[in-house]
Amino acid sequence: AFFWLVSLLLASLIWFVSVHLSDREDAKLQYGLLVFGAAISVLLQETFRFAYFKLLKKADEGLAMISEDGRSPISLRQMAYVSGLSFGIISGVFSVINILADSIGPGIVGIHGDSPYYFITSAFLTMALVLLHTFWGVIFFDACEKRRYWCLALVVASHLLTSGLTFLNPWYEASLVPIFIITLCTGLWAFFTAGGSFRNILKCLSCKGGD
């Protein structure tokens, strides 16, 4: 979570400086800088995810050295899951904190013709982002470990696409539906990356243990 916060701080600084060096009266330019800031934020998040992977690899080597059997007590998949979940939770907190502050009032959502589904769609979007960061963490760490650079590129591209789709709001149908499709596909990808299979799903549903 700390690594995600640092990436957000750097992205905010870049956006802040860009805005103050530009013409604030130019609405199109300011909107373009907002899109630019979102893209920079995504790239910095993925950069810090990679930095965290390298840090955990070093820590993993140290744990293996001091263990009795010469193996680390924590697997790479466990670290990937926890890392992704931490990124997702802190991302979700920052996504929803301002929305919760606005919900205190004054006023009523939709009274000026805005969508009355603002809060519920924001909640679903936050949920999708938390899940996506968890899935991205699993896929990203596995790709780094196995040097599958095309997987890394797909993670970054899907992150950029998801961030870009949020600019379609308040046209929620055009943003939420594709984002949840991306979430479902990424979740299946992360499931199989982590060693899952349809056979395991059937065993889970039938409450049967493995060998």
From TrEMBL:
TM region positions: 31-48, 79-97, 117-141, 148-168, 174-192
GO cellular component, one term: gamma-secretase complex
Signal peptide range: 1-19
Keywords: Membrane, Notch signaling pathway, Signal, Transmembrane, Transmembrane helix
Membrane-protein topology: Multi-pass membrane protein
GO biological process: Notch signaling pathway; protein processing
Pfam families associated with the record: Aph-1 (PF06105)
Keyword Transmembrane helix: yes
InterPro entries, sorted: Aph-1 (IPR009294)
Localization: Membrane
Biological role: Potential subunit of the gamma-secretase complex, an endoprotease complex that catalyzes the intramembrane cleavage of integral proteins such as Notch receptors.
Subunit-structure text: Component of the gamma-secretase complex.
Similarity field: Belongs to the APH-1 family.
Protein known as: Gamma-secretase subunit APH-1
Organism classification: Eukaryota, Metazoa, Chordata, Craniata, Vertebrata
